[in-house]
Design a protein that fits this description.
Largest interface: A-B, 22 and 18 residues
Number of domains of chain B: 2
Oligomer: heterodimer
InterPro entries (chain A): AAA+_ATPase, ABC_transporter-like_ATP-bd, ABC_transporter-like_CS, ABC_transpr_MalK-like, ABC_transpr_MalK/UgpC-like, P-loop_NTPase
Keywords (chain A): ATP-binding, Nucleotide-binding, Transport
GO cellular component, one term (chain A): ATP-binding cassette (ABC) transporter complex, substrate-binding subunit-containing
Order of helices and strands of chain B: HEEHHHHHHHHHHH
Number of domains of chain A: 2
Largest sheet of chain A: 6 strands, mixed
Structural class of chain A: alpha+beta
Protein name (chain A): Sugar ABC transporter, ATP-binding protein
Radius of gyration of chain B: 24 Å
Pfam family, one (chain A): ABC_tran
Low-confidence stretches of chain A: 301-344, 373-402, 446-469
Mean pLDDT of chain A: 78
Number of helices of chain A: 12
Strand content of chain B: under 5%
Shape of chain A: elongated
Chain lengths: 469, 296
């Protein structure tokens, strides 16, 4: 069933929980409603279920307005956060309950319950009470009960939040499998970005009752429409630096909380032209850098620290357009589509010191302090906090104080020899860098989006690049 | 933090329990034991506490006593008249009060007032209400063409009057317990049931009733025991008599009469033990049923 939300609004007294929501969910699609707690995602789900009635706008199921239809008549199945299995009924009775309410004949009830139990793999548990089941099993029963009456929409309200980490992984694959087997339009509420990314066809990211972005997971990750989206998606979270453009020197100045310049980043002409277009004069903005989209290499000729695959002659002055050589084996943690771009565009570079290193196994996480002056007392300043917190503390209006971080968390190949205290150079490709307006957090560098080469400015950049090269 | 059981810790615990234990022993346990012994006195001097002979004569007397049979019959009628009606009515009102109505707190207080008011005061007011010529009840009934009923003076109507009063009085307490039980049922079961297309009636029978069963069970046991012990309502309503022509004579009233009015201490004790046994057996029966039907 196709679902449309038109200017959907929900107020509780003075609080606007959902603010003019417009979205269309296609038939058979799995859409995640994602956002921090209190963003209105569960309210939206309850509006879809009919447990709340909207105070404005409309909900359309297959083109028909169903604002005032009671939940009983909406043909929906729902899985609640705590499953809401009837504790006094056996699993069989729980799953049969919706059928019993529909007065389905006994024999057919039994047949459909068995079939559904098989689909969610709980046939051996049918005669137990919910209290005798594990969390994951209860989850499966709840899904079976929601699906047994063959609804047209399946609503899931944070269904995995009560499960432990490993089970969560397993259940989200199960939910995806069942959803695709049944082919039902599914709305999945979660506050876990990783869960949303892994399970959804599309993600609807909300904040304060408003849509931030509604896109495919990969698009959302590669081209976040604003700073909030960028910070919400991805672990480890995106690095955010404050920067100011300096027109005289054609540099981006990375600044700290006191607005003092930590270091300047020389930038190539084509990129500069775009910045000039977007911000006439000197402007403040945020730079987002994903932990995996930078190269870290030892800076000084500390001889024994050199990484064998890198030649170091050119890296200090990236504004001089020296094309990079493709070095796949060193960059295999970079997505392939990006890898092919090294060499065509000139990376920006920042210098810093490794202050922390964490082994993950597949790769390593390092923190690079960019503030040369504080290199000796590196642990004095706070590391980039968690994405949610970061986003919420940075209110766009009124708050004049700039919250700036002066270190980067970056993922490096597991066996790269980087040690604490080592001076390094961080290289970032312009197209891997996200720029956001300081005033409203909106994405600024659209022309550089690698995923949308069809954008008007995209090809022109490539052309300019070629000329300069 | 659990301490190891030892003589010292046991004594310490006893010390803390002593105040309550002493009161319980002096006023409950000791009388229970002595009254059991007293029910076996067949020849005795009450004032000097000298017993010449023990036996089962008192119980044999109860077996043959018409009054005791009447008291038993009346008590059973009373219990059957009060308990089911009271539970049904209080559950119904609790369901209404559990919805989002205005002045909910106010109504809850109103319904609880009868429970905390003195039985004597209540009975006096009800004597006015039940009055044959000037009573409110007959006045209301007259609107529907019912000729005046002699609520308190007609032997046929004495028991129904008593039952009405008892139901009304017990309502508040039951409602409060039911409300607590209803609020313990998580909202999401109802939401789930609505999505499963259960009607209001189906939601009551499939969710509320089974999940409320521990409460219903508790209320029914408390009500049965309480109703078997009915006394003060009768005393106040019928002005110190067990109703017209002993029509409201209950077991406790019978015990009271034997003990205080006829000085038949041993017979009164025996009757008390019969009552105790009846209540005990009924409670065991309820517990047995409860184990099978109650969903915790």
């Amino acid at each position: 069933m196709k679902i449309e939300l038109r200017d959907l609004e929900m107020r509780f007294g003075d609080v606007v929980a959902v603010h003019r929501l417009n979205a269309t969910f296609d038939d058979g699609e799995l859409v995640s409603l994602l956002g921090p707690s209190g963003c209105g995602k569960s309210t939206t789900l309850f509006l879809l279920a009919g447990l709340y009635k909207p105070t404005g706008g409309a909900i359309l199921f297959d083109g028909k307005v169903i604002n005032d239809t009671e939940p009983e008549h909406r043909h929906i199945g729902m899985v609640f956060q705590n499953y809401a299995l009837y504790p006094h009924m056996t699993v069989r009775q729980n799953i049969a309950f919706p059928l019993r309410m529909l007065k389905v004949p006994k024999a057919e009830q039994a047949r459909r319950v068995e079939a559904m139990a098989e689909l969610v793999k709980i046939s051996h548990l049918l005669d137990r009470k919910p209290a005798q089941l594990s969390g994951g099993q209860q989850q499966r029963v709840a899904i079976a009960r929601a699906l047994v009456k063959e609804p047209k929409v399946l609503l899931l309200d944070e269904p995995l939040s009560n499960l432990d980490a490993r089970l969560r992984l397993e259940m989200r694959e199960e939910i995806r499998r069942i959803q695709q087997e049944v082919g039902i339009t599914t709305i999945f509420v979660t506050h876990d970005q990783e869960e949303a990314m892994s399970i959804s066809d599309r993600i609807l990211l909300m904040k304060d009752g408003k849509i931030q972005q509604f896109d495919k997971p990969q698009t959302m990750y590669d081209a976040p429409s604003n700073l909030f989206v960028a910070e919400f998606l991805g672990t480890p979270p995106i690095n955010v630096l404050k920067a100011r453009s300096n027109a005289q020197q054609k540099t981006l100045e990375i600044i700290d909380e006191k607005q003092e310049v930590i270091q300047s980043m020389a930038i190539s002409d084509p990129f500069w032209n775009i910045i000039k277009e977007t911000f006439p004069g000197s402007a403040l903005f945020s730079i987002g850098i994903r932990p995996e989209s930078a190269h870290v290499k030892p800076l000084r000729s500390g001889a024994n620290h050199t990484v064998k695959t890198h030649t170091e002659s050119h890296v200090l002055h990236p504004s001089v357009a020296v094309p990079h050589q493709k070095q796949d084996h060193a960059h295999d943690h970079i997505p392939h589509d990006a890898g092919s771009n090294w060499g065509t565009t000139v990376p920006f570079s920042l210098s810093g010191t490794i202050v922390y290193r964490e082994t993950i196994g597949r790769d390593s996480l390092v923190r690079v302090d960019l503030n040369a002056r504080s290199a000796d007392s590196v642990y004095d300043h706070a590391p980039p906090s968690h994405a949610h917190e970061n986003a919420s503390t940075k209110k766009q209006t009124g708050d004049q104080k700039i919250r700036a971080y002066t270190s980067l968390r970056l993922l490096v190949p597991a066996h790269q020899q980087l040690e604490i205290g080592m001076p390094v150079e961080v290289e970032i490709l312009p197209e891997k860098m996200h720029l956001f307006s300081e005033t409203d957090g909106a994405r600024l560098s659209l022309p550089l989006d690698i995923n949308e080469p069809q954008e008007t400015h995209g090809p022109s950049l490539q052309e300019k690049e070629v000329q300069h090269g | 933090m659990m301490q190891e059981k030892s003589l010292a810790t046991t004594l310490k615990a006893l010390l803390y329990l002593a105040p309550a234990l002493i009161i319980l022993v002096v006023f409950n346990i000791y009388p229970i034991i002595t009254s059991f012994l007293m029910s076996l006195y067949t020849d005795y001097d009450y004032y000097h506490d000298i017993v010449y002979r023990y036996g089962f004569d008192n119980f044999l007397f109860l077996l043959q006593d018409e009054d005791f049979h009447l008291a038993l019959r009346n008590t059973f009628i009373f219990v059957l008249g009060v308990v089911p009606a009271s539970i049904t009515l209080s559950l119904f009102i609790a369901l209404l009060l559990n919805t989002n109505i205005k002045l909910r707190g106010f109504f809850r207080t109103i319904y609880f007032i009868p429970f905390v008011t003195s039985v004597v005061a209540i009975s006096i007011v009800w004597r006015w209400i039940f009055h044959t010529e000037y009573g409110l009840l007959n006045y209301f009934l007259s609107w529907f063409g019912v000729s005046p009923i002699k609520w308190l003076t007609d032997p046929k109507w004495a028991m129904p009057s008593l039952i009405i009063l008892a139901i009304w009085k017990g309502l508040g307490y039951n409602i409060v317990i039911f409300l607590a039980g209803l609020q313990n049922i998580p909202e999401h079961y109802y939401l789930a049931a609505r999505i499963d297309r259960a009607s209001r009636w189906q939601r009551f029978w499939n969710i509320t009733w089974p999940l409320l069963s521990p409460t219903t069970f508790f209320v029914s046991i408390i009500s049965v025991i309480g109703s078997f012990k009915v006394f003060d309502e009768i005393y106040a309503l019928f002005d110190g008599r067990p109703g017209p022509v002993r029509s409201a004579l209950t077991v406790v009233y019978y015990i009271f009469e034997k003990f205080y009015r006829e000085q038949e201490y041993a017979v009164a004790s025996a009757a008390a033990y019969v009552l105790f046994l009846i209540v005990f057996i009924l409670t065991l029966l309820q517990l047995y049923i409860g184990k099978k039907r109650v969903h915790y």
